[in-house]
Amino acid sequence: MKVTLHIWRQSKPSTKDDFAQDGKMVRYELDHVSNDMSFLEMLDVLNEQLIKKGEEPVTFDHDCREGICGTCGVVVNGEPHGPESGTTTCQLHMRSFKDGAEIWVEPWRAAAFPVIKDLMVDRTALDRIVQAGAFVSVNTGAPQDANALPVPKADADKAFDAAACIGCGACVAACKNASSMLFVGAKVSHFVHLPQGRVERETRARNLVAAMDKEGFGNCTNQYECEAACPKDIPVRVIADLNREYLRAKVREEPANTKRIGGDG
Amino acid sequence: MTWLCDFWRSSVGGKLTMAVTGVLLFLFVVGHLLGNLQLFSEPEHLADYAKLLHREPALLWAVRCVLGGALLLHVVTGIRLARQNRAARPVKYQKEEILVASFASRSMLLTGLTTLGFVVYHLLHFTAGVVHGAGAAKAGKFDGFDVHTMVVRSFENPSIALAYVGFMVVLFFHLAHGIQSFVQTLGLNHARYTPVIRRLSVVVAGLLAGGNILLPLSVLSGIVKVAP
Amino acid sequence: MKLDAKIPAGPVQEKWSNRKFELKLVNPANKRKYKVLVVGSGLAGASAAASLAELGYQVECFCFQDSPRRAHSIAAQGGINAAKNYRNDGDSIYRLFYDTVKGGDFRAREANVYRLAELSVNIIDQAVAQGVPFARDYGGMLDNRSFGGAQVSRTFYARGQTGQQLLLGAYTALARQIGLGTVKMFSRTEMLDVVIVDGHAKGIVVRDLVTGEARSHAGDAVVLATGGYGNVFYLSTNAKGCNVTATWRAHKRGAGFANPCYTQIHPTCIPVSGDHQSKLTLMSESLRNDGRVWVSKKQGDKRRPGEIPEDERDYYLERKYPSYGNLAPRDISSRAAKQVCDDGRGIGDTGLGVYLDFRDAIARLGKDAIAARYGNLFHMYAKITAEDPYSQPMRIFPAVHYTMGGLWVDYDLMSTVPGLFVLGEANFSDHGANRLGASALMQGLADGYFVIPYTIGGYLAGQKAGSVKADHPEFQRVAGGVVEMTKRLLSIQGKRTVDDFHKALGKIMWQKCGMARNEQGLKEALREIPALREEFWRDVRVLGGELSTNQSLEKAGRLADFLEFGELLCRDALERRESCGGHFREEWQTADGEALRDDEKFCHAAVWEYKGDVKNAVRHQEALAFENVHLAVRSYK
């Protein structure tokens, strides 16, 4: 089959003042596309042709190509990861498109995700959020036996549903407000459903929200585009969890100068 | 105080502010409608109701302050969040697709601001009585609480009645998304109830807007007339 | 090259305790003076970086991905073994040790394997404490499943994404340290050389993949956790970015490379669909808990699977290996699939495939139970093939998956270069000639969480902290070489693309050094690979600039190393004149096609020393002694 591609080409990295730089949509025609190709393999073929013509290939992030590493991700015809639900870009196949289709390919667009080149964006903002508290503070050592603390299956399942997040950023790309609350909600929800994670639930909720706000993401307006775009079907329930946990954490927060008796030493 | 400001300034705190003020305003809309529906009863009842509301001026003003404050906070926070949301995407998509977001959810700012305009107009109209000569109509019977005549006289004018209908349609969209939205923002999400709440949200918004629309329509169609 | 494995004295059960006691300690106040460079952020790298930082060392961690969370450990599906014996089915540390030595076809170091089995227990405890959501039963206890090569249920899992959940555990531990400022993370940064000063590894030279800048980082020890080299075959289940560069460049600087010919071909992958194919997708071995593998008894049978009656089906694994059945180890299952395909009984248009059928399991347990166990795998299969595995059997075929070979390390995980430690798949590991399923996660985490924190102290205690800085002339010399190679790749401006060359290399490797190898094919490969390499350096076309993001340049540098490494792999395969585990030489097989070891001549690890080029590389041997698990013909019948 044959497709017409419109691909965002941007040679210089985004800056705060000039986000789009020289970026523009460039049109390419591609023939002999097979149904069994993945979307990224189709881009590989385009790149091979571009190189042979002496043009710079399209830069795009990708790695595992089996839908789990979360590296790949472009907006295809206005939909993050393309038209198939529950699918990453690398698992999207050309059989999802008709012969002669016109396909618009754009990077994730968010102030918190500056474009590095073409379709490649910088998602380290998500890492910084995790660094602020999306973990259990436990050192490597000799914790108690794994079965010492039973976890009801329902809780373990809920935690898992949130932990399935691959950190691709499609939720941000899909959100009309470029909000990362599905991502942050997934972290909060994962830990709050496990006894190990509940110890730090309050500091975690406060710190994650503070870190998220620092990065310049937008706010959730409950439109649920994130849930629809998420390749791992993370439910918006996790955003409700985030809201509740944050409210709880703020209400219970003690003043910073609360006196303690003695010292830690 | 810094604690409260920090809370308000945070993204989730801002949302929660929208939700809590939203709940208050929603409850007001419900109460307001129930009061209004007395238009279908004897004119004296409406007047008694109006008098009841004014019996304790301190309480009246306390409620007005809370509602006014909630409204102000709702509007200011909403505008702040909307501005942040705009800034969060400096370059728009060249090709944009909507996956699931409803029209109502996408037009909250617009419907919200329109409703704000309506509230101002409505207060000037019926509460202050400074437009459409409503004040004069109200001053007639029942110790100056002839709300019935005031309302009917106003809605006999088709352009006023239709404007009210129009504003209520806008309010419908705002509430259709708003009700289920504050439930979610307040952290209530459950596999069984959430789908019901999402549908109920539209139904309740429809009942509220529809109930209010009934008033101008019944006047316009002559079902409700000025008492002889 | 001196190979001292430093295996501690004493019975195998006490070796690790003895070693831990012997190792010198670094005083807590002194730890912060030492800087450790950790390259790679998968299970081994992330767990090592986090654990070392927790101890108080300064750590710098590097990964070529945009985030440490994306390392390919994330793709592991099925599970992680641990000798917990929660199932009361006869498991023990000794049994896991025994199974692993036997599964590795008696080509692993006993002492290391025992330590691995011993530490497996701690890994599960650690992961659960981190909040890893392992599968649980209705009583709230951890659930287990079975994996190949074992007759007990000792595999812990988190739906079909155990690797992702364990990696997120290690990644969050790492993220915590980054947040605390004890680890400096460099993502989108690729290591391109090791710097050795006075015989000790003292730093690395990296390329910033965003700006293109070459940078030097000095430290007191270097830890490589950079994964395996499966992508030398072009098509593999590895991520596209997986490469041999870090270990190969370390090898060229003096680190011995052990057993490169031990490559694991995984039996259950989705078959190739065309020339455009860029990678192969694994279908977890856990599927063989419930799926039955079969082909038609007739050659060239073109009927649809549903039309082939029960008595005309050959459930060949169950037939040949009745006691292990569909859970025979990977090397054996892969070879059995190849045999039925060679016999003309393969399925599909290409005849390169076998069925993995869930019909009986669905009839027995119901579709919902199967969906609960493997839903995401079935979903992935349906996405890729557009076929519904609930209603028709999966089509599967073996594919390159894991590499048991790697840089040689002693018991302390230190390579032949002092101060250069190698963890996880990057080292020649504890798996011998074949790795059992659900053991890679175990090894990566054991190395990172529980081995390196002890052994690195033993080394650092004898070193002066911060003795070499990044302005040392050796750094400038090495960085100069890195920049020169980059410029050279960009200057060729030939006609063929990098991928074109990579596919050509992959074809040679798969055809001549894949599932079955023979002397003639290997000799051909040893002629073809250098010729291809020569053509690469004459005719490759790499566009774009040096000082900017340039993915073609990254790929070209990695392929240049594969083109050298592939030759070493074939040399090793040629020299190992026996069949063992994943290395199958057609000349050495039993009458019924099983691998035939030659313990007399080859009961050793082959360790290659670089001497200017691959042709002149010297083969050394580390003899393997089996004092606990006695050398025997491996049987799963």
Task: State the gist of this model.
The complex is a heterotrimer of chains A (265), B (228) and C (637). Chain B has one domain.
Question: What's the helix and strand layout?
Answer:
The complex is a heterotrimer of chains A (265), B (228) and C (637).
Chain A: E1 3-9, E2 24-30, H1 39-52, E3 75-76, E4 79-80, E5 102-106, E6 115-117, E7 120-121, H2 124-131, H3 153-163, H4 170-174, H5 181-192, H6 195-198, H7 201-214, H8 225-229, H9 237-252
Parallel strand pairs in A: 1-5
Antiparallel strand pairs in A: 1-2, 3-4, 3-5, 6-7
Chain B: H1 2-9, H2 11-36, H3 43-54, H4 57-87, H5 103-106, H6 108-127, H7 134-138, H8 147-155, H9 158-185, H10 193-220
Chain C: H1 15-22, H2 28-31, E1 35-39, H3 43-55, E2 58-62, E3 80-81, H4 93-103, H5 110-130, E4 155-156, H6 162-180, E5 183-186, E6 189-197, E7 200-208, E8 214-218, E9 221-224, H7 245-252, E10 257-258, E11 263-269, E12 292-296, E13 313-314, H8 316-320, H9 330-342, E14 354-357, H10 359-365, H11 367-385, E15 394-403, E16 406-407, E17 420-422, H12 440-460, H13 473-492, H14 498-513, H15 519-539, H16 551-575, H17 599-602, E18 604-611, E19 613-623
Parallel strand pairs in C: 1-2, 1-9, 2-5, 9-17
Antiparallel strand pairs in C: 3-4, 6-7, 7-8, 10-16, 10-18, 11-15, 12-13, 12-14, 14-15, 18-19
Strand content of chain B: under 5%
**Low-pLDDT residue intervals, each spanning 5 or more residues of chain C:** none
* Top CATH class of the largest domain in chain C: Alpha Beta
CATH topology title of the largest domain in chain C: FAD/NAD(P)-binding domain
Shape of chain C: globular
Question: How many β-strand runs of chain B?
Answer: 0
Number of strands of chain C: 19
Helix fraction of chain C?
Answer: 25-40%
- Taking all Cα atoms into account, the compactness measure Rg of chain C is 24 Å
Main beta-sheet strand count, sense and barrel state of chain B: none
Percentage beta strand of chain C: 15-25%
Q: How do the strands of the widest beta sheet of chain C line up side by side?
A: 5-2-1-9-17
CATH architecture of the largest domain in chain C: 3-Layer(bba) Sandwich
Principal-axes geometry of chain B comes out as globular
Structural class of chain B: mainly alpha
> What does the main sheet of chain C amount to?
5 strands, parallel
* Average pLDDT for all residues of chain B: 95
